[in-house]
Amino acid sequence: MPSDARPPLGLTLGAIAGLAFLHLPILIIFLYAFTTEERSYQFPPPGLTTEWFGVAWNRADIWPPLYLSLRVAAISSAMALVLGTLCAAAMARAKFFGRDTVSLLVVLPIALPGIITGMSLRSAFAIGEIPFSTFTIVLGHATFCIVIVYNNAVARFRRLGPSMLEASADLGANSFQTFRHVILPNLGSALLAGGMLAFALSFDEVIVTTFTAGQQSTLPIWMLNELVRPRQRPVTNVVAIVVFVATFLPILAAYYLTRGAEETAGGGK
Amino acid sequence: MTGTAAHPARGPGDRLTGLFWRRPKLLTALLIAPPLLWLGVVYVGSLVALLIQSFYSIDRFSGIVVKEFTLRTYAELLIPSNFDVIVRTVTMAAAVTLASVVVAFPVAFFAARHAKGRWKAVFYLGIMLPLWSSYLVKVYAWKLILAKEGIVTWAAEGIGAGNLLNAVLALPVIGGNSLSTSYIGTFLVFLYVWLPYMILPMQASLERVPTSMLEASADLGAGGWRTFRSVILPLALPGVIAGSIFTFSLTLGDYIIPQIIGSSRFFIGQTVYSLQGTAGNIPLAAAFAVVPIAIMLVYLTVARKMGAFDAL
Amino acid sequence: MTPAVEFQSVSRHFGTVKAVDRVDLAIAEGAFFAMLGPSGSGKTTCLRLISGFEMPSAGTVRIFGEDMGAVPPNRRHVNTVFQDYALFPHMSVRDNVGYGLMVRGVDRRARRAKAEEMLALVKLDGFGDRKPAQLSGGQRQRVALARALVNEPRVLLLDEPLGALDLKLREAMQDELKSLQQRLGITFVFVTHDQGEALSMADRVAVFNEGRVAQVGTPAEIYERPATRFVADFVGSSNVLPPEITAAVGGPRAWASLRPEAIRIASEGRLRGIVTGARYLGAGTRIEVSAGALPRTPGYLPQDEGGIAVLVPAGRAVPAVGSEVALDWDEGALHLMEGA
After folding, report:
1. What is the largest CA-CA distance in chain B?
2. For B19-47, how does the pLDDT look when each residue is reduced to its tens digit (9 = 90+)?
3. Exposed, middle or buried: residue A76 (CB in 10 Å: 0-12, 13-18, 19+)?
4. Does C15 touch chain A if contact means CB atoms closer than 8 Å?
5. Structural domain span for residue C26
6. What is the ipTM of this complex?
7. What's the pLDDT tens digit per position in C64-107?
8. Are the beta carbons of A25 and B268 separated by less than 8 Å?
9. How many whole angstroms separate alpha carbon C49 and alpha carbon C54?
10. CATH of region A56-258, choose from 1.50.10.20, 3.90.220.20, 2.50.20.10, 1.10.3720.10
11. Chain C window 164-203: which residues touch B at a Cβ cutoff of 8 Å?
């Protein structure tokens, strides 16, 4: 609960400075997408232009990575939706042996650094002699997306409580009717939010992907290559904005979907 | 009113419901099986594969992986050039963690105890959006900011601090040609990218400090600093530790940031990536990847003893 | 006549905890039956055994003679008013009430008509379009009641039905539930920890203690002739006399109960003692008569028992604290109890 006392000036300044530190760098990206300077990151930009959006649009090498990223994010978040919801439902039902192990197992892929998840999958592919494909990318993404859906769903199940499900059964509904008429409507927005966050996370992911993609290129991998060996810097700036918006919008939507509920989406990335 | 005490079962839905009711564990098992299988096979299986690989070795001449148990690969970690990488990474992780505690505190404290109504939402989004927005874009933004011709140099010269910037860059070890090729740059970006992970648990644990406790401390005549040191800090500690688990672990395992912004000297992540890729030495890459796991296990054990998990 | 609900040596164990332990119980059709007991006494578990949310570890639960061992909750002709009401937050009041009909496949129009009828029954006409969140606690309670009654259950279960309401509302609701039950003729079984509620509403009461039924009877029987020390203690606030004391005041050597309102302050009496405390209750004053009142018995120190409570009705003189009084009562007031 917030105290009524006025915050000390130092604290207020520190908090504002902290928030500014978190946000100003992102604004820089938007400025640079309009720069006329092509070869360096000169500041302030010598001039402003919108031509780079057109140039990026016509670059053939951007579209396949974009499609791949969208496909991977769609499949991964769909799988995570199913698996995360099932897991949350089981955890909400009852205490059972190994509960703590399951919750640890769900969190682990995101709690451990991406490089470990990536390297582990890479090791497994090497041992199993599995060739790289869209499937190998999805394998990794779905694994760390489960926890996002799970976190959203489990909080909602907790709020739903056991008595609501018992009331439904008491009034004559069988398990499937209870799922359709009580669980799904109450879980819906949480699942949608979880799915969108999972989509954003997958669309943007680069560390695990570099280990599981082989020669394929997702949009973040394309961008990473441009960062390491820049070809046409302003085009990269434009793509950066696209990636930013593609992750920003689902996050914002997820926030508004779960706003007001005691569990707001994104609390545990 | 007459009628039987029970309605008849209508269709398979009712019959299955009856079965689930008589055997509640069956339904739980059916629900948990798919996610458990997925995580068990794909994830735990992969972790086991990582461990197995780390006990293999590579034939120095043919470059082929020898699939026999050996500790030789782990011994290679102790070679000075490899060990330096580990020390460098752990030092960076520790520095980033400490700095993020300092920077996160005012934001977390303000958000937890002073933000109300609309401001609460502003702070929530203000922390959540940078956390979730594209990692790569955030790193890229810093490449633009820290570039030699970028905004920091421009601003430093604008306020007549250009010489100061040059003096800082001239410092041994942490300095460099420009901010974007120095350890200072790497450190700043790490701090920026992982900061929300420190703010959130800190805020959560600060929100749980009862206002009455702060008032009691003030009533007892404790000044701001005394209250801070003897009341707020101990209560915020679980959150700090929880946050440090994230900042520490994420810094240990990252390889994109030092690759894009920093000197050419490797961190653990870069070493793993280049070993498994161009060098083709998967066993050594795996052994290197086990290092952050081992460090984090020690860290988590200590943190658990200090009660950090209550704040997660 | 077949009882509406019958427990035959029913037990429900959770690990080593015997929540319900070999309970035998018969609830007659049309009864307003109370299950009374402190928390953890097994009364709620018994209610859940009837609705089907718990399964007996041993024994048989019968509803109208039918063994419920293989009947899941959704098929039992029994409905529940939950303690927290458990209304569906995403549905309107009308859809909440009509839910039981919907899952049984009743068409929309019939559902609507029946829901309105039920809402009228609980005096909530015109509230059908609201969401549960827009209702007061008392209104939610009525919705929960209407929703449970819409399926025309043969037994209605109520779990602490008045627990969440404030005092005034609780009293009004007591009368309303009672008259509703009489009008519908449905068997009502309700769980409560409030002895006043149980005694005033029910026509039969089962007192639960540690998973077992301590006594079943009419409210008057429970109140006036408690079967065990526990019942005497829990229902009202009887004086419980150990066998030595009972014998000393002229009874047999057995545990006995003596109601405070049955004791008179008199010039001559069966006991003498010192008034150690007085509490004004409105309808009377409850005084505590201590120590010296009880003849000393070897091996027993009456001081530890806290003395005897006496209710002095309003209008009578209340003896001052510290004064000596004599206590007397009618021959039949001393009620002997079985066992401990």
Report:
1. 97
2. 988 888 888 889 999 999 999 888 999 88
3. buried
4. no
5. 5-233
6. 0.81
7. 999 998 899 999 999 999 998 999 999 999 999 999 999 999 99
8. no
9. 5
10. 1.10.3720.10
11. 185-186
